[in-house]
Write a structure and sequence with these properties.
Blueprint: H1 2-8, E1 15-19, H2 25-40, E2 47-52, H3 57-72, E3 79-84, H4 93-105, H5 122-137, H6 145-157, H7 161-174, H8 179-191, H9 195-212, H10 217-240
Parallel strand pairs: 1-2, 2-3
Helix pairs in contact: 1-2, 2-3, 6-7, 6-8, 7-8, 8-9, 8-10, 9-10
Length: 241
């Protein structure tokens, strides 16, 4: 059914997952339909994953013929992959095939990272990655709050305070209803020695966290107390001088 829909109404879905398709049925009618369809299309912005368990020659023949056709000539932009699970039968292959198929279909979901684990291209690279995902999947995939936050803390750990603060500020702009983004921005200002600004954002984190009943409200309050005490100590030392 999956391959029939792909080759008769390709715009119905963006991705197709065919587990042990019975391509031998009715003298390989669906196989021949698929071969003719792919041969007639120069471009096709769809994704197909198909698989097979340890099954008889009828099943294997159709599976191998489809692989052979796509290997010889697949439409431009058509993403496809196949896998055979020789230690599974027609019934037991379903779970593994679905997992492998979903991994194949969403193979580009993860953020590209360099050898240190940092996102390739920094903040611009992060935003470009999620724009590309949005274009491919046909709906807006926003940059997750935690992805931006983690990048900000990586910069903070490298003592790149100006860059870290800019990233945390961007997260505040995107997620103003999250208490955590203010707490993280406070960390950035605290690291840069700007305690007054750190204190303001700690207070904002507690305020928003109280309104949203944030589960980390206790941590935000502890952070506020810590920065308050640090600011008082710094002010006291300045006064003594």
């Amino acid at each position: 059914m999956a391959i029939h829909i792909l080759t008769s109404r390709p715009q119905m879905f963006q991705a197709y997952l065919a587990v042990s398709p019975s391509l031998w049925w009715d003298k390989q009618h669906t196989l021949h339909q698929a071969q003719a369809f792919f041969a007639a299309h120069d471009e096709l912005d769809e994704t197909l994953f198909f698989s097979l368990g340890n099954e008889g020659p009828q099943m294997r023949d159709g599976f191998e013929e489809l692989k052979k056709s796509l290997t010889a000539k697949a439409p431009k932009d058509f993403r496809w992959a196949s896998e055979q699970f020789s230690d599974e039968n027609h019934g037991s292959t379903v779970l593994r095939a679905h997992y492998a198929g979903l991994r194949s279909i969403f193979s580009d979901w993860e953020m590209p990272r360099d050898e240190t684990g940092a996102p390739v291209g920094g903040m611009n690279g992060i935003e470009q990655h999620f724009r590309a995902l949005s274009q491919r999947y046909g709906y807006t995939v926003p940059v997750p709050e935690n992805v931006i936050n983690n990048f900000g803390y990586r910069l903070l750990g490298d003592k790149k305070f100006v860059e870290a603060i800019a990233v945390f500020q961007h997260n505040v702009e995107l997620y103003p209803g999250s208490a955590n983004v203010y707490d993280s921005l406070a960390d950035g200002y605290e690291g840069a020695g700007k305690l007054e600004l750190a204190l303001q954002n700690c207070q904002k984190a507690v305020e928003v966290g109280t309104e949203t009943n944030d589960r980390n409200l206790g941590q935000f309050k502890d952070h506020l107390k810590l920065v308050t005490d640090k600011a008082k100590t710094t002010e006291s030392k300045s006064g003594q001088k």
